[in-house]
Design goal:
heterotrimer, A alpha+beta (226), B mainly alpha (262), C mainly alpha (80), A: 226 residues, alpha+beta, Helix Hairpins, Immunoglobulin-like, 2 domains, three-stranded mixed beta sheet, elongated, B: 262 residues, mainly alpha, Four Helix Bundle (Hemerythrin (Met), subunit A), globular
């Protein structure tokens, strides 16, 4: 969950998010190097008194400042592409969870074993118990097992919504008439929050997503007791 | 006012038509929107009427400037040619967007259509009946307009008239056959994305055929009035270019929507 | 731990015909395949149930309901 004055990402709960954080750090390092270098150039150029009235070109420096940025862009692009395809990669899932965006709540369907179907509304602020988070807690949480490959299918019933859990490094638009697939893999237990990420109407800000990652055995007993 | 200038450029006079055409087109578009939403044609008719009147008078002025005042020098002619080329290029892109929509919907048909193109329940036209005849008509009209052009360049007034007359006639023939086909259509513009892409693409093409035929008809009338010389007849050339463009669009429509798409 | 789970948890497998993020067609094709299979092989033909399992796992329930009622009304857009 995001907390006050937080600048970086939320702690990761999946291997993909770990990779995303590594990539972010990699990109930011390059950004700092470039900003420092260019900042130094600007300062040294405006604070010196050198004059060269016959300067027409400088082939060497022009080659350098063309090739160097190209190399830097490649160094940025390759890990980015690797990550892009890694996120798309499907490993054989153990369960499938379907989620449908509505104005303004999410509904969830587990149909692998028996038909489990429920709606997940935001908890009104005055119903919150101590320790629950305003605008993030829902009445029916999604329960998923950790260390298990989950196929998440996202769609919508009315307008476009978007389902996301930042800790998993996952987000997909929920489009009516289309099924988008996401790969979910929790590497630890916990409760994770997300919010609808596509402006979907008046209560767009009030249809959060709460996922509880539990021990697979506990997940099975939850399924059986549903 | 002397007509002598020290430069080859055409500095246009003050004219009421730009602002009036802007108002006319504004009421035409608002009128179409009103018509489609309230089924009331009043404003659309007013728009069509005023737009037509402005067009007639504006182009009458252009004819006077070009043909009678000699303001269309060869330098100006280059500008006119570039203008027509760019206009047709923009029209090509206009049709590219409809073909894009068509191929987007037909190459991977949505499950709502039963993953099939044409969708179940749509009976498309047989492309080898009226559409094939229309293809032949437009190709023939491409030949006759070229005949007219060569006759014009060789100062043969009679054959230029004959070629142009035949071209206009074929244009009318095409439009009537399209109208007949629309009248007989077993599906409508509201029949899923098939009907929509079909009627929007072929409908806008039909509108362009009507515009092209009108353009050629104006050239025919101007020809009988001896407006064209064998060296100075850009109005005719522009109409011929436009007609070829309409012809090529039809070939793509015929091949992809009528033939491949059924 | 996850080995225990995979024995109990079985879902529709990854289908190489649908390698994209867009899985709409996986759901649709399984639905059509099940009803075709039943029509050709009869309602008691057990292997057809594979398709049913897949489409039940993958299709949103509202889609299944819509298609079921379309088939009853004879307005389903595909010939079964």
């Amino acid at each position: 969950m995001a907390t006050w004055a937080q600048i970086g990402f939320q702690n990761s709960a999946s291997p993909l998010m770990e990779q995303l954080i590594f990539f972010h750090d990699h990109a930011l390092l390059i950004l700092i190097l470039i900003t420092t270098l260019v900042g130094y150039f600007m300062l040294s150029l405006v604070t010196n008194k050198f004059v060269n009235r016959y300067l027409l070109d400088g082939q060497m420096i022009e080659i350098i400042w063309t090739v160097l940025p190209a190399v830097i862009l490649i160094i940025l692009a390759l890990p980015s592409l690797r990550l892009l395809y890694l996120i798309d990669e499907t490993t054989e899932p153990s369960i499938t969870l379907k989620t449908v965006g509505h104005q303004w709540y999410w509904s969830y369907e587990y149909s692998d074993f028996k038909d489990i179907e429920f709606d997940s509304y935001m908890m009104p602020s005055n119903d919150l118990e101590k320790g629950q988070f305003r605008l993030l807690e829902v009445d029916n949480r999604v329960i998923l097992p950790y260390l298990t490959q989950v196929r998440l299918l996202v769609t919508a019933g009315d307008v476009i919504h978007s389902w996301t859990i930042p800790s998993l490094g996952i987000k997909a638009d929920a489009v009516p008439g289309r099924l988008n697939q996401l790969n979910v893999f929790f590497n630890r237990p916990g409760v994770f929050y997300g919010q609808c990420s596509e402006i979907c109407g008046a209560n767009h800000s009030f249809m959060p997503i709460t996922v509880e990652a539990v021990n697979p055995a506990d997940f099975l007993s939850w399924v059986k007791s549903f | 006012m002397s007509n002598h200038m020290n430069h080859p450029f055409h500095l246009v006079d003050k004219s009421p038509w730009p602002i009036l055409s802007a108002f006319s087109v504004m009421s035409l578009v608002s009128g179409l929107a009103k018509w489609f939403h309230t089924f009331n044609m009043d404003l659309a008719i007013l728009g069509i009427l005023s737009t037509t009147l402005v067009m007639i008078q504006w182009w009458r002025d252009v004819v006077r400037e070009g043909t009678f005042q000699g303001l269309h020098t060869s330098k100006v002619g280059v500008g006119l040619r570039w203008g027509m080329i760019l206009f047709i290029a923009s029209e090509v892109l206009f049709f590219v967007s409809f073909f894009w929509a068509f191929f987007h919907s037909s190459l991977a048909p949505a499950v709502e259509l039963g993953s099939a193109w044409p969708p179940l329940g749509i009976k498309p036209f047989n492309p080898f009946q009226i559409p094939l005849l229309n293809t032949a008509i437009l190709l023939a009209s491409g030949v006759t307009v070229t005949w007219a052009h060569h006759a014009l360049m060789e100062n043969n007034h009679t054959q230029a008239f004959q070629g142009l007359f035949l071209t206009v006639f074929l244009g009318f023939y095409f439009t009537s056959l399209q109208a007949l086909e629309y009248f007989e259509a077993p599906f409508s513009i509201a029949d899923a994305v098939y009907g929509t892409t079909f009627f929007v693409a072929t409908g806008f093409h039909g509108l362009h055929v009507i515009i092209g035929t009108t353009f050629l008809l104006i050239c025919l009338i101007r020809h009988t009035l001896h407006h064209f010389s064998f060296t100075h007849h850009f109005g005719f050339e522009a109409a011929a270019w436009y007609w070829h463009f309409v012809d090529v669009v039809w070939l793509f429509l015929f091949i992809s929507i009528y033939w491949w798409g059924n | 731990m996850s080995a225990i789970v995979t024995e109990e948890l079985v879902t529709a497998p990854v289908d190489p015909r649908f390698p994209n993020q867009n899985q709409t067609r996986y759901c649709w094709q399984s639905y059509v395949d099940f009803h075709r299979c039943q029509k050709i092989k009869g309602e008691d033909f057990a292997p057809c149930e594979y398709f049913q399992k897949v489409y039940k796992s993958v299709c949103p329930n509202s889609w299944i309901e819509k298609w079921d009622s379309q088939r009853e009304a004879g307005t389903f857009p595909k010939k079964i």
